[in-house]
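Serpin peptidase inhibitor 22
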Amino acid sequence: MNLLTFVILVTAALADQSALQEFISSTNKFAASVYKELNSGGNFLVSPLSAELILALAQAGAKNATKEELRQGAHLPPSEPTLREGVGQVFALLQNPDYVLRTVNKIYVAEKCPINGDFKILAEKTYNATLENIDFASKDKAVAGINHWVAQETDSKIRNLVNGEVLGNKTVTLLVNTLRFRANWSTPFHFLETRPSVFYTKDNTTIVDMMHIWAEEFEFYENFDLNATFLVLPLEGQNVTLTVVLAHSIDLLEAQMGAVLESPQETQRDIFNVALPRFKLESRIDLKQVLKNLGVRRAFEDGEADFSLIAGRKGELFISDIVQKTFIEVDEDGIEAAAATFIVKLINRNGNNAREFRVDRPANWSTPFHFLETRPSVFYTKDNTTIVDMMHIWSEEFEFYENFDLNATFLVLPLEGQNVTLTVVLPQSIDLLEAQMGAVLESPQETQRDIFNVALPKFKLESRIDLKQVLKNVLGNKTVTLLVNTLRFRANWSTPFHFLETRPSVFYTKDNTTIVDMMHIWTEEFEFYENFDLNATFLVLPLEGQNVTLTVVLPQSIDLLEAQMGAVLESPQETQRDIFNVALPRFKLESRIDLKQVLKNLGVRRAFEDGEADFSLIAGRKGELFISDIVQKTFIEVDEDGIEAAAATFIVKLINRNGNNAREFRVDRPFVFFVKVNDLVVFVGKVVVPT
């Protein structure tokens, strides 16, 4: 069974910086040790650098045997001055405009806990750490605050790092490191070349989205002891690379991963066709057991640990948890990865007496709402159950009212702004509620106030044009060029349609009627003009921004209007102003248009003729390139907020891909990967099945 490993490598000419090199060497040894401890049958991802930085900070507050065990277990440099200098140089090394590599340390300290002044100065100056007092006893609020900060620092890639089970009345300090990495390919994978392909797992096969690069020169090296090829894919930035290791035996490679991670390799260059699966991977790793296996014992023992350089006396502080959460996504654009590692000293967990308001079945709401505190939970549909990301607010006071006729509770969640709220309606029967929603929306309600724990499912709605699907039938082995234009438009109404005024209404089609969601604006002044030749009224609805409008044309006869639309679009119109009640249906529209036939009807002929078209200013000679397809796909959505629209148009020239004699490097089997920056291991992981 073959295997793949990939490596992200950033190398800089800093050999003379011995402290930095010693820290890099120490981190890579730690990476090798951690990999051996974590190696199992499934996917995983770990950031040795994130763990190393937070462990270095923790050991800076330790003494005697506790400090020595942490230093040896994490393979930290034996000299404290060398370690501090190396950490400082790592922070300086990470500043680069060509890619994003940002790491931040933070120390949360229990209120009224006296932190040692020398440790505070060391943490701030050497480890770039900020300190913040927090009430760990209010665990839900503390969890939300910590997770919000982590999500901000990792661009929302790491969510729900901590939970209420690791914090409580006895928590004294929480040390957190966050790390974020983002780099684009120097030689891109074009998304039009991505296609479903077979990936061979150890015992089976699965279908993955396989990205491709054709006939490009790359660095590589071969390890005959491992029977593996290492392909080096460059990313933007000086010496930033992803190294992919394709082995014939995953077991043999994994047994030697320590040497692979620690040792640089001499490379050659050759031409390759590369196939690499697009994937996303997230892991949550308990580093406490890993460190115990690496000989760290006293730091975890109540009464034996000595963190008296942080606070208190020997035995008063000990580590209860060390956890890391990681994320990586590899796609056609490049690589994005993040990690967060936390160390808790002393823990407890307390409950609260708040009322429970758990939205785990269909409910009506008025406006989107987002929280960072989420976790998978069961949601009860009408006929089944499903798993959703459930957002939470803990022990907060809210307005509410209960409707006993509907057997429903209405919870009012305030948003920023005066009198802006989200009301969530949780009924025992969704059918009974929906039958009475008109009365619910029209009538104000008297509310009470109480303390609630709120669980609300998170949802996201996106609209996108899938060019891959659009193009799959028009591209092939002879495609030479593809010209693409994309356009996106988004604007909000100047005079909004209030969603509470939207209601089902009759819409008259040519031959029938249908029910639509009709939006309303009442007694507002708008520009308009009337065209008596077309027997049509043109109403101009302004959007935010100078001279941005949506003009709605309402004719008595749609056929007569369409016959004259050319003149309507070309000629400016003089408008008047008047007061209107406006009723406009909420709608969404998508189209796919073959512009080739349109252009042929407009007299464009030679561009589509093989042998006659002349695009020699692009490539080749006259007759070698011709247009085979011109297609546009469009989207528009009009709702109470405003208008969102998009379009994509492409032109395909010729269709052929000439063969090449490039070596094949097809990553279609389980693989290991690691990310390096200046030879420093930032991430290491394994993918058995790409997700």
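thats it. The longest helix spans residues 18-38. The chain is about 20% helix and 45% strand. bye
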